[in-house]
Amino acid sequence: MAHQQSESSNAGGVLLAFLAGAAVGAAVALLYAPARGEETREAVNRRAREGRDRVLDALRQGRGILNEQRDHMATAFDRARQQARDPEHDA
Q1: Domain residue ranges of the chain, discontinuous segments joined by +
Q2: Could you count the other beta carbons within 10 Å of the beta carbon of residue 8?
Q3: Exposure string (b/e) for 39-50, b if CB count within 10 Å is 16 or more?
């Protein structure tokens, strides 16, 4: 059970690191692209907002996955507790 939670949190961390790396890479590429300073700043700001939105979406999804896993664990715990109280009870 703890192994599943560990895998979920590791997957979320990998996704977050990938998105952060992509955002940094895009910003660096824009800084070295031949464009006027104002255009470059606008592009960097736009990309930063897009990256922030993607990270927030990923965090929301991760939070949903964690809540779902927590609900599954609570249900399993409740069933186990019920079976311990009433060994003849079939779930």
Answers
A1: 2-85
A2: 15
A3: ebeebbeebeee
